[in-house]
Amino acid sequence: MDTLVTKDLTLGYGDEVVIDDLDITIPKGEISVFIGGNGCGKSTLLRSLARLLKPQQGDVVLNGEDIAKVPTKEVAKQLAILPQSPTSPEGLTVEDLVKQGRHPYKKMFKRWSDEDEKAVHEALDATNMNTLKDRSVDSLSGGQRQRAWIAMTLAQGTDTILLDEPTTYLDMSHQIEILDLLFELNEERGSTIVMVLHDLNLACRYAHHIVAIKDKKVYAQGKPEEIINCGLVHDVFQMKCDVMYDPMFGTPMCIPHGRGRCLIKEAVEESRQQQTGS
């Protein structure tokens, strides 16, 4: 069964419509990535999927139920969201942050249980954060901090995790570290992962399913190898490019046109000058 489905979904702020009459399906047990130009509504859509933004029209269906009609704590047991650049109170330890993921299971006067303890330790293990559990979150590197937040979402015990630009502000090695972690969670646990990413090549490498958004609607959705081409990149990002296959992964790889230094042109010019000089 599909995990998340939108039906005739319209989203906006006041009179401004950001997403208009949108129908998408998020496949269960796969990694889905939203792509599109700045301001196209990717993050707004993600917030709506997590019931953080009420639709102006239409529905979000989670595991067969209208998410608007499901109690908040019940939604939090099925779906976790990690917003862009989350912040924590100063001095909060990694372990205490991860424990916050158990909040949906707390009831009045209910004590911390063995099940809660197990969920926290499993989340720390899965993210390789056990050795850092006593460190304050604000003392961690960017990649470590992001892993700590992902551990918190894992402790929440949901089958579906939504992440808004989880690699923003991270250097290249930490971007790959976080995306590899999410890939492993999908492979080993069958987690349904939904992300907003700006790097099209990384989106193609890690996603099973891509949703491209343009002009408030879905421009295309499907497997990266089926939908990513020069026409899509031109229409969605207003950018000319060549698309070839990544020689290591076999996934689409976008090479944008631009005015950067071109080694091929330099080599041709050098050869021409040598021939002229001789």
From TrEMBL:
<dbReference type="GO" id="GO:0005524">
    <property type="term" value="F:ATP binding"/>
</dbReference>
<keyword id="KW-0410">Iron transport</keyword>
<dbReference type="GO" id="GO:0005886">
    <property type="term" value="C:plasma membrane"/>
</dbReference>
<keyword id="KW-0406">Ion transport</keyword>
<feature type="domain" description="ABC transporter">
    <location>
        <begin position="4"/>
        <end position="240"/>
    </location>
</feature>
<dbReference type="InterPro" id="IPR003593">
    <property type="entry name" value="AAA+_ATPase"/>
</dbReference>
<dbReference type="InterPro" id="IPR003439">
    <property type="entry name" value="ABC_transporter-like_ATP-bd"/>
</dbReference>
<dbReference type="InterPro" id="IPR051535">
    <property type="entry name" value="Siderophore_ABC-ATPase"/>
</dbReference>
<dbReference type="GO" id="GO:0006826">
    <property type="term" value="P:iron ion transport"/>
</dbReference>
<protein>
    <submittedName>
        <fullName>Iron-III-dicitrate ABC transporter ATP-binding protein</fullName>
    </submittedName>
</protein>
<keyword id="KW-0472">Membrane</keyword>
<keyword id="KW-0813">Transport</keyword>
<dbReference type="InterPro" id="IPR027417">
    <property type="entry name" value="P-loop_NTPase"/>
</dbReference>
<keyword id="KW-0408">Iron</keyword>
<dbReference type="GO" id="GO:0016887">
    <property type="term" value="F:ATP hydrolysis activity"/>
</dbReference>
<dbReference type="InterPro" id="IPR017871">
    <property type="entry name" value="ABC_transporter-like_CS"/>
</dbReference>
<dbReference type="Pfam" id="PF00005">
    <property type="entry name" value="ABC_tran"/>
</dbReference>
<keyword id="KW-0547">Nucleotide-binding</keyword>
<keyword id="KW-1003">Cell membrane</keyword>
<keyword id="KW-0067">ATP-binding</keyword>
